[in-house]
Amino acid sequence: MTEPGAVLFNRCRARAIALLLACAVPASGPAVAAPEAAPDFTVQLLSGGAVSAGALKGKVIVLNFWASWCVPCKHELADLNATYVRRGSRHLAVFAINAEQAPDQRRLAQQAGRMTIPVAISITGGYRPRNNAVPTTIVIDSAGKLVLTKAGAWKPGEVDALIDTLLAPSPASDTTR
Questions:
Q1: Predicted local distance difference test score (pLDDT) of residue 172
Q2: What's residue 131's pLDDT?
Q3: Per-residue pLDDT for 40 more than 90?
Q4: Residue 68: which CATH number?
Q5: E runs forming strands in the chain
Q6: How open is the CA angle 21-132-85, to the nearest 5 degrees?
């Protein structure tokens, strides 16, 4: 049986996510009509390792496509990195995926050295920048649903607010009562 507080919380949470998504969707129309299952993927890391979507089950996942020459990308990566450092890796996974065909390895290594989030050089599963725009951010919720695909830079604090909303505990899962 669902508690009344949990129902109200879930309604408010859904409205907050909808509001954030409405603000984040470009004028060309919605990126995702309704949450749908996110395709599986594997990211190939700059460090040489690989991470699959299956290894991230239960986490909110942020895939951020960027380019070393893109100034808005670097600002966005700094915000994402700060969110990741603040929230930790227990419930959140963030990947900075370089979208350049032939990236400058020196610039790539420099950017990777400034961040805690892992830099990826490729991804499988059909993920790519929306309309070839960088930055492009894809957000997958902890249930494995594709929540958002956004082309273009976030305003400061927007991505942080969305991640906080997706990571907020539900009163139904509160075991301290």
A1: 61
A2: 92
A3: yes
A4: 3.40.30.10
A5: 36-37, 42-45, 50-52, 60-66, 92-98, 119-123, 136-140, 145-151
A6: 55
